[in-house]
Amino acid sequence: QVQLVESGGGLVQAGESLRLSCTASESIFSINRVGWYRQAPGKQRELVATMISGGRANYADSVKGRFTISSGDAKNPVYLQMNSLKPEDTGVYYCYVSTYVSYWGQGTQVTVSS
User: Fold this and answer.
1) In this predicted model, what pLDDT tens digit does every residue of 3-41 receive, in sequence order?
2) What CA–CA distances, in Å, run from 55 to 23, 71, 85?
3) 8 backbone φψ class: left, alpha, beta (φ>0; ψ -120 to 50)
4) Out of 44, 55, 85, 102, which residue is the most buried by the measure of CB atoms under 10 Å away?
């Protein structure tokens, strides 16, 4: 069973940047979609960004112009560059990789102080 591990989260001040990475326990091939979701305390998990292989990226309105999703390789399939962070970006961020099955990471905490 492939496992995904997110890294790069942490505590930053508003306006700063973070880059999240997603690493797989073994290489993943035939990826058709990658993405990032987040969950704030007391709220449902929400889509942050997603990208179809070879296609365009889609972003939540709240992060457009600030976040950039990018694909990597079979071991590090997806990244998320987060700039101009805001306190409302605080939450646990999960990476997601889809082939004929879907894989989820266990999340990394991002905390943005004002």
Assistant:
1) 999 999 999 999 999 999 999 999 999 999 999 999 998
2) 21, 11, 26
3) left
4) 85
How many Cα neighbours within 13 Å face the side chain of 79? Answer: 12
Of 40, 104, 36, the C-alpha closest to 66 is 36
Tokens read off for 11: 């505590």
Rounded Cα distance between 82 and 31, Å, is 23
Asked if 87 and 113 touch (Cβ cutoff 8 Å), the reply is yes
Q: Distance from CA of residue 17 to its chain's centroid? A: 14
- What pLDDT is attached to residue 53? 83
Determine how many CB atoms are found less than 10 A away from the CB of residue 87.
Answer: 11
Cα–Cα dist 8/76, whole Å:
13
35-69: pLDDT as tens digits: 999 999 899 999 999 999 877 899 999 999 999 99
